[in-house]
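Sorry to interrupt, but I need a hand with the structure work. I would like you to pick a protein and set down its sequence and fold. Please put the record directly below this note.
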Amino acid sequence: MKTFPHSDMLKQLPDQFFAVLANRMEKAVAEGHDVINLGQGSPDKPTPPHVIKRLQEASQDIENHKYPPFRGKKNLLNAVAEFYQREYGVDIDPDTEVALLFGAKAGLVELPLSVMNPGETMLVPDPGYPDYWSGPAMANVPMHMMPLLEENNFLPVYDDIPEDVKKASKMLLLNYPNNPTGAMASEEFFDETIAFAEKHDLCVVHDFAYGAIGFDGNKPVSYLERPGAKDIGIEIYTMSKTYNMAGWRVAFAVGNPSVIEAINIIQDHFYCSIFGAVQDAAAEALTSSQEGVDELVELYEDRRKALIEGAREIGWNVAAPQGSFFAWLKVPEGYTSTSFADMLLEEAKILVAPGIGFGEHGEGYIRVGLVLEKERIQEALERIKKLNIF
């Protein structure tokens, strides 16, 4: 059988980090081991019942059996605008400032293809979500990695970016609450970001995937809350984390109309919008009672407490995340992020994500997810305690 060579674009794509983790998990389970999976980033709780009920009802609507409008149903676009006004006090024009996405990941990949040209530089956080690297590879744009260091509260330092890189850059990508570090951004940081972007003619893209999940009573700041933010950028929000709708593949970008239009144009060629019933259910989630969201944050905070307090009890000096459902834990002395992750899997049957998979500056850490029951997190700590490494 003839083998057709892959395109040059496919050949330059980065390895899929999470697929590798999933394969390691499947292999260990297939060998009969009870593996505690702390490496995943998928919510473990079901979608709220009232959202599922709305999907069931909407699936019976004959109109939803037809092609949906290319750029989304009006009720969902209006729901997004209502959500941003209610949660953040931000006015959004549903007709020109919202683009529906087949999950936030799709939008993040599409953006460099939509508003950048080959050779223009994209400023990307390091460590950061590995799928951030896919869009630049497809668009043939170089990345400049911005170190996120603990001594800087895991925020980029714009003064450290070389002048020639600033001049070549077109897009700045941020993500707070942060995956993988769990750090939060302040209003002051976003104000600094806006001033920096205005000075260097940058498009700001804020990945707000964990926008609902802040701890110790602190609500995460939306980039769009700050004066001038919409003039130079957008925010991407997903239903996956806030409403446990990861498998539904529905998200949205909001903000600068020219960037939103660029996303909509490329999606006009890729898709014919999201299944109408899913859109109706998403609108229900955004506009109905948010009590379930509050309960979800309390659940993650309880799990965070179990993880951090339990780790400290066995002598592991770790810092608590400020938001997201991840913890960013320093590995013990004498280990790399990979060797520590390998040891945990081999000797304790615990899967974690090695920090190096999130970028060069992820070395020395592992990422642990809070998407398992508290009892399993506590069991993982008991297994680690028995290794006598602290």
Summary: The chain has a mean pLDDT of 95. Residues 63 and 276 are 8 Å apart (CA to CA). The radius of gyration is 21 Å.
